[in-house]
Design a protein that fits this description.
Helices cover 36% and strands 21% of the residues. The chain has 466 residues and is of the alpha/beta class. Bound molecules: beta-L-fructofuranose (LFR). The site of beta-L-fructofuranose (LFR) has 14 residues, from helix 8. It holds the Pfam family FGGY_C. Keywords: ATP-binding, Disulfide bond, Kinase, Nucleotide-binding, Rhamnose metabolism, Transferase. This is Rhamnulokinase.
């Protein structure tokens, strides 16, 4: 199978196999995917992504299927002939400034949460669509990024459920589009295409000699959570660590209490009807933007080694502050955040990297503790999956900050989850998530980090409230 995994900094086409005691993924093609600033807006280069995706699939050799997952919330609009209307806009664009409060005057935050279960993020699809204004009149269909690429491959129009659940236009309990809510905020329900479950064969790709295209858990985080190697019966939390840290729990049903709303937890749909009860923590984005500001992205391994030798918790910031959301000069923003809490950003690049990693681990602590408190479920172990599982300092700091062991890996969780759901759709005997996770445990490298208890994380947390 080909697993296409499009992230906010790079896209990859992986070749994967799954069978009894066998699960592999291997990178075939990787391509950069930074946003493109043009005029007043920040866009995705969607046609470039499609071209690279096709090239990668062709390079992968003989295949039984292909599945696409990507970041969530962003979309393309089609006209009534099926042609793309305008270029998809990047969720870090500023066009939704002021929109959430306008929407709140029509639908109260409590009601919005009651229907959709979604956390408040300025870039939720609902807010992006409202910011389009009259342009929506020309549109007949909305397709999220993986659905758009699937449409170009197969001609079939639909909305895969795990990603649809991130739009703030999906009724999390009824498992349908929230059509009347959409109307009330001025979004025509005709835009919302038929829903499809992950594991559905969408069609075949004429351009790829009739290759079957499978709707996987098309939200990358949903695919990553499939590959969390949790053993049956453990009280586990997960952190899918990459550009974002998606930190939370897998629940059988949405948690829509006042406490969940106040803690800004989301109830996104997972594969097989599960709920991903999690919070978006700002993630390694702040680190990668910092390295971009310094023009030294290739220095990351050396800087992390040096950071590990710098004193822990010398300075910490609230990494979830919206100031860190847009692209830009992160070191200056870190300095400013330190000043407002009576701290100084230590000098030297290694110390700045240490401040970012410590602050991220501290945010993991807040999110995991809040998830446990709000859901009433204990957390005895954290599975940290995705690219961040390679970052030893982050894994150890997260274990220290949270006070529970961290099991790190697999790094390629999203691609593995993509392959597992495809394999089942194509006839492999993987009846449920437990069987998929057993296969991940059996075949993938996982490292254990014990909490060391040497630093005072509670005191560091208190510094943020000064
Ligand atoms: C991670 C992710 C998050 C989503 C963010 C924006 O890649 O998909 O789950 O909140 O990107 O789409």
């Amino acid at each position: 199978m080909a697993a296409v995994d499009l992230g906010a900094s790079s896209g990859r086409v992986m070749a994967g196999t799954a069978g009894p005691s066998q699960l592999t993924v291997e990178e075939v093609r990787r391509f950069p995917n930074s946003g493109v600033r043009a005029g007043p807006a920040l866009y995705w280069d969607i046609l470039g992504l499609y071209r690279e995706t096709l090239a990668g699939i062709r390079e992968a050799g003989r295949l039984d299927g292909v599945g696409i997952d990507s970041w969530a919330v962003d979309y393309g609009l089609l006209d009534d002939r099926g042609a793309l209307l305008g270029n998809p806009v990047h969720y870090r664009d500023s066009r939704t400034e002021g929109v959430p409060s306008r929407v709140a005057s029509k639908v109260a935050a409590r009601e919005l949460y009651d229907v959709t279960g979604l956390q408040q993020l300025p870039f939720n699809t609902l807010y992006q669509l409202v910011s389009e204004g009259a342009r929506l009149e020309a549109a007949s269909t909305l397709l999220l990024i993986p659905d758009l690429l699937n449409y170009w491959l197969t001609g079939s129009i639909g909305a895969e459920r795990t990603n649809a659940s991130t739009t703030q236009l999906y009724d999390v309990r009824a498992r349908t589009w929230a059509a009347s809510l959409a109307s009330r905020v001025g979004i025509p329900p005709r835009l919302l295409p038929p829903l499809r479950d992950p594991g559905t064969v969408v069609g075949t790709a004429a351009e790829l000699s009739g290759l079957p295209v499978v709707a996987v858990g098309s939200h990358d985080t949903a695919s990553a959570v499939v590959a969390v190697p949790a053993a049956p019966g453990t009280n586990f939390a997960y952190i899918s660590s990459g550009t974002w840290s998606l930190a939370g729990l897998e629940l059988p049903a949405p948690e829509l209490s006042d406490a969940a709303l106040a803690a800004n937890f989301t109830n996104e749909g997972g594969v097989d009807g599960t709920i991903r009860f999690l919070r978006n923590v700002m993630g390694l984005w702040v680190l990668s933007e910092t390295l971009r500001t310094w023009s030294c992205p290739e220095d990351l391994p050396a800087l992390l080694t040096a950071a590990a030798a710098s004193p822990a918790l010398a300075a910490v910031v609230d990494i979830d502050d919206p100031a860190f959301l847009p692209p830009g000069d992160m070191p200056s923003r870190l300095s400013a955040a330190c000043r407002t809490t009576g701290q100084r950003l230590p000098s030297g690049r290694a110390a700045v990297v240490r401040c970012i990693v410590d602050s991220l681990a501290l945010a993991h602590r807040r999110a995991i503790r809040a998830a446990a408190r709000v859901s009433g479920r204990p957390v005895d172990v954290i599975h940290l999956v995705g690219g961040g599982a390679r970052n030893e300092l982050l894994c150890q700091s997260t274990a220290d900050a949270c006070g529970v062991p961290v099991l790190a890996g697999p790094v390629e969780a999203a691609a593995l989850g993509n392959v597992l759901v495809q394999a089942r759709a194509l006839g492999e005997d993987l009846p449920d998530l437990a069987a998929m996770r057993a296969l991940v445990r059996e075949t993938q490298e996982i490292r254990r980090y014990e909490p060391s208890g040497t630093a005072d994380w509670a005191a560091a947390e208190a510094r943020l409230h000064r």
